[in-house]
## 1
Amino acid sequence: MIQFLNLLFRNRLAGLGAGMLVLILLIALITPVLPLPDPNITATADRFMSPFSEGHLLGTDHLGRDLLSRLLSGTRLSLAVGVAAALIATVIGSSIGIVAGFLGGRTDNIIMRLVDMLMAFPYILLALAIVAALGPGLNNALIAVAAVNVPFFARNIRGVTVGLANKEFVDAARLNGMSNGQIIFSEILPNVLPVIVIAMSTTIGWMILETAGLSFLGLGSQPPQADLGSMLGEARAALITFPHTSVVPGIMIFLIVMSINLLGDGVRDAIDPRLKSGALSRPLPATIVERKEVPPTPDKDLLSLQELRTEFHVGERVYKAVGGVSLKVNKGECLGIIGESGSGKSVTALSVMGLVASPPGKIVGGTVSFQGKDLVGASYNELRSLRGDRVAYIFQDPLSTLHPLYTVGDQLIEAMQAHRSVPQKDAQARAVELLEAVRIPNAAQRVKNYPHEMSGGMRQRVSIAMALANEPDVIIADEPTTALDVTVQAQILSLLNDLRRERDLAIVFITHDFGVVAQLCDRVAVMYAGQIVEEGPTAAILDDPQHPYTKRLMACVPELGGGKRELHAIAGLPPAVDQLPQGCAFAARCEFAQEVCRQGGIMLEPKGERAVRCLFPVNADQIEVTL
Amino acid sequence: MAAYILKRLISAIPVLFGITLIVFLIMAMIPGDPATAILGAYATPENVAKINRDLGLDAPLFQRYFIWLGNLFTGDLGRSYSLNRPVLHEIIERFHATLVLAGSSFVLCAVFGILAGVVSAARQYGWADKAITFTVLIGISIPSFFLGMVMILVFAVRLRWFPVSGMYAIYGGGDILDLLRHLIMPALALAAVATGVVARMSRSAMLEVLRQDYIRTARAKGVKERKVILGHALSSAMVNIIPVLGIQAGFVLSGAVYIEMVFQWPGIGRMLVDAILKRDILLVQGGVVFVAACYVLFNIVVDVVQSLLDPRIKS
Ligand code: SF4
């Protein structure tokens, strides 16, 4: 609760709304004791006095009545009527919703049908019909406004109740011999109450506005009694000659509704958990770069990363997702990056083309160089012209990574036309060719399919075809087979391998599966907590893993290329990257850990073609011993 | 496609029946003898006897509903006693004016609402976003009838840009330009709240979509940012925006009541208010059923547009 209020008031606008509302409520409460003239005393001699006249701060209306005192009593009345309508709608609507949701079956069905029909009406129209039947008057307007809001509450609260009615604690209460009524009051109601309160707080502004509206039309409060709406309605006749009589009540309605809206928005934001983590930020077209120093760019490799650092800044916290990674890949070569989820392997891959979601992501150091050109410092336009053209991506889950509303053909064509103007006809033919190249049967028909009409394996082939569309130099594949079953996985892997051979592609393959690495990759880099802990030719590392973590990773693979397995066999969890330990990040889980391991940063020591980041590397003999 | 439209039309039939039943039951709440209630000041014995005969008002409630429904099917909504003409004629004439007003407001709210939402999302936390968010807050808080009055004061009385009220000039008006001059203020005043709501929903729908994986895919392909926002993101966001438009159409349609009063627009909303004040029950009853039915049909159009946009709906 405290946390909720904190969140609410951190939002300055919500605080402003709350302040305004409290002020208006206070004034409305103390109005009867204020030394003001009677709001209904007419004085024809004093008609239409302008504001700031003697004895009438806001002037007088068409009957010479004091506007300030009429405004305050009108505010009182409008608030009272709006709140009363909200309470009635809440109580009746919520009761209907709870009963329907709790009982379910026929009762629920009939009630909800009726609710749907009521909601089929344009809102104010229904209120008008009710006022027409009951006759104009403030009480009837109140009933009408409450009645048209009942379906809204009934539907919302029913939804929540249905979710609760099947929970264990309700079953338990039933077994304990509680009656339906008892269960509703002791188990259901306390749980739906917060939802009811929120629904009420978001609609109360509407209801104040609507009753004021009916009064404005002359269907609500009748003279001499006046709420804000009827004040405005009566003043309308003199709108052009004496505008102040209209403007005064109008501004008051506006202030009330705005303060309620501000507060309501604040409440909603404080409740919506997505907003807390800042997740509702939209990612920019390219990752933000804040580099302090720029290391020199090596020029001979096709793609190389030097001391790359990518961080996520969420509130006060800094997650060092990539903590100084250096890698390189050349033509026709396949580099594997392996690690558990959260090791920073995907973020490394996305950093290459500035695709890390930003905010909150930031590249804070290092370089990515492609054919000698630094991509981290490149402008958005330079990056865009390389994306998908020279360096293409294949992502993990093709159902969420392909656009659901475009046909696969259109998505392929778009990939080509983003980089060069290809006539529509040629592009279409080329799209079919691409689908054939990734061995999709019936390609000419398939181009017209939407992603949801294809199987997972087919969709992934489409992603691969899309990556191939511009004959790129590098393909970065981020766990492209993880969502697929074993046979399909094997097919996709051999397809990628063939394409690499045929087209001399460089592939960066990100996975958590050593089996996949063994099948496809020439070299492999093992990542842990944002750093490379071991790197070298795949065969050498498979034969003789030297980092204790690599060894443990390999032990998790019962058979090569097995498919969807998580690396759960390693005891413990990797350290959170916002709280990295001082020394070796693996120390807490390492069976060889010594005191020195925890003392200072450990370097990635090169040894010939290989490198390892460990003070006490495992060698073949040691493996024998420890096993 | 045709099958989908047919399915939606069939599913609307019970809703339309429900609407007639609800309106009928509300009107049956009127205390006292229905014939006298309907006739009000015109309740002479001859009139009472005639209307009892015509509408079967002395029959039981249940039977009365079916008599009314039967008449409804033949297009007979009864006769307005205050206007002394058939209810249907009056409704159709007035609805035309409302349609012009509400229709233009709806177009305004859809176009400007979505535009504002997209700009706001694409420039999140930038000055454009802040300006739009602030304007939207004002827009959704100001009662349309007050906004209309303020607009009259500023643009009609002070600046003399537009006429104060009405649909056509009394002397020499009647062409489309004259109509436009009269239409601009009421249409804007009526659209204000709906535009604000649409802008808000569009902004959050866009932000939601921009975080999706397929947006990252589009960027990874090298698609230009303008196309990512206006193509990939907006087309997906529309799936969530269109239902909001459907709901706002209802608000615009019924909110027209206030605006028609403020601007003396000869639409169905003003007709309803006048009819209520004159207790012309048949006119109210017919008007409400007519507008509600139009809204139900409009929602079918919304659903069909939605299904055209989202290939996942039909399968
Ligand atoms: S440095 Fe020490 S703790 Fe870290 S992996 Fe090597 S042996 Fe284990």
## 2
Amino acid sequence: MKQIEKSAPRIGVYVCHCGTNIAQTVDVEAVAEYAGTLPNVVVARDNMYMCSDPGQALIRKDIKEHRLDRVVVAACSPRMHEPTFRGAVFGAGMNPYLFEMCNIREQCSWVHQDREKATQKASDLVRSSVARAALLEALKERYADVTKAALVLGGGIAGIQASLDIADAGYKVYLVERQPSIGGHMAQLDKTFPTLDCSACILTPKMVDVSRHKNIELITLGELKEVAGYVGNFKARVVQRARYVDIDGCTACNDCVDVCPQIHPDEFNMGLSTRKAIYQPFPQAVPGAFVLNLDDCLGKLPRPCEKCLEACDAKCINYDAEDKELELDVGAIVVATGMDVFDPLVLPELGYGKHEDILTGLEFERMLSAGGPTGGKIVRISNGKPPKDVVFVHCVGSRDKVCGNEYCSRICCMYIIKQAHLIKDRLPDTNVTSYYIDIRAFGKGFEEFYDRVREEGVLFKRGKPSEIFRRKDKLVVRAEDTLLGKVTEHETDMVILGVGLVPSEGYQELAQMLKLSLSPDRFFLEAHPKLRPVDSNIEGVYLAGCCQGPKDIPDTVAQAKAAASSVIALLNRGEVTIEPVVADIDEDLCSGCHVCEALCPYSALIYDPGREVMTVNQALCKGCGVCPSACPSGAITMRHYTDAQVEAQLDALTGHQSVAEKVEA
Amino acid sequence: MADFEPRIVGFACNWCCYAGADLAGTSRFNYPPNMRIIRVMCSGRIDPSFILKAFHDGADGVFIGGCHPGDCHYMSGNYKTQKRVVMLAGLLSSLGIEPERLHLEWVSAAEGQQFADAVTRFTARIKELGPLRIPHPKVEDEHAIEPA
Ligand code: FES
């Protein structure tokens, strides 16, 4: 063993094979051997799985035996296992901030094939980490109390379920929904696949539970505007738009609707029927109170026509109501903002919008519903008669690079199969044909349901329609039957487009507000696709339902319950650790020039006029490191990312060639 | 110049670019092995002096990866980075260093492919430029700064 001065750091380096994940492209033994030659390194070893129990035990044993005071593990990404190893060294009495992780898997062995070059790169990275480790300083973690309340964004089935679970555990929930009622898309569905439960019958009781729960504060017509703070202590600013109808006073008597002269397309029925300017979104709406959309109102300026005001016996209409701004303190946030359906106007060849008898799946769903525009009767919009022939088109706006949606929307095959069944159920003599690319019937009971519907006489043809147009009073679907290899023209009465799902409107603004990452499909990105499917990349913010990616109702509910349990665990713990990675000011060096003050996005830098220096409010500092990089006096130190630490890494990565060699002769 | 293997230092912010680089790994998107990354919390931590030091000490190229505009985990760190990079590009050219040797790229946590592509392009560019040679100061200039 090398002789090392007493005060010098004593570093242990551990290079992981990760089975063959690292070892197949990096000569792990050679890297470990090389690490042993680096300054201050007391032990250097390689091991099959450093993150395993024996791997961690090895570190702890070495810390004791070799009196290590720094540990470097070269393995996977710190985003994966840094917490694991910090825990391991802490278990042996070492300050966790004296641990350094070196990424030779994600950023080396997995992306390079040349073994020699990958080994060289791994050695360089280890050298850089060892240099940094030598300068690491012990930091003390801070703790903060957790506000025992949660904010749930979105009142569809995901948000409803998450709210109920969190509220049942005894915590306050603010459920914010931007529509006038909760219920989301599930409220619009007639039946659910494959069990054919009535959607409203299973959803409505849950909606009512939300409205009655003493721990849930429901904020409809609400929109998140701003979020500050961090896990355990978020401050959310929510704007609640005026409803112009007093929620508690309204008895839903309908008198106002009867007199209202203004007619508008009904959003709930996908524009297939109309509503008044004052209306109830749908009969089971929660809250049940009516809502007045002043933008739709006749003669908004200077005054509304006031017919509804006169008709309202309960006197609960108030045109002067104003938007309310709410400040909510919460410890955790569940994002359950759902999805929108794909707009087939993007694909003009499908004829949607040109012919009334071409509907989207969701429009047809409303037609199927007993509470819908036709009272559940299946009719051609063009003539009001039942269709004799119906065609379904799969994968509209899904699995289609042309319209930018490469992903499978996961529900369309099944809702089409369900809708086909419902047609056969109500109009047994109607021919139903479904044009598909592949049938994806992967869930519990799905394949069996698909079989049943085929036996009922629904025809499935493999091929994607290229064009839909009108010929006299018929629609013609032109498609290539890829099994027969020939182009067919199918005359039909009605076409239903199996539209896929897209991120819900405003997802980008929300992502920016909460600092959420997006997947390539534009849905919110989970922290880990396998092991942390409901965590977002931001601590304390969880994802539930379709906002994370298309999914059906059972998967949505499962994810909502998982998100709720994560929230409950956090609120129950009552305390969060705050990384001590913050800025520090050396007051002897600070000249009080205020340069840093303007740069800090959190106003954590405050001028002390008495001492004429800047100071850091460490509770506000988030540790981005912008200020030390701008301080002209070098007075600010960024803990854990100090100038010296970064420069040591730079030296280690570049230092082989002296400046003299670089200078042109 | 065919066998010239450039030495490239990369700085990546933890929240976007570093995560994007990890995703490139998980997805096994290959790219040239020349760059070594130093992880910082935010690209705003990258002191211009780090970049100058990297070139001074022997880096042939410096790559900076941050979050897309508007996406910085600390709100505005990447805007500061952008300003610094623009400022440094001018300074580099006046020092006789090709400003293309310093490259700023926005990479989100979901952009593994984009990260791999960006590193591939940048490495090729530096190979084309060849090893960095810092021009020797002219003799008269040297006398000028000599104490009288
Ligand atoms: S955190 Fe990525 S640039 Fe600021």
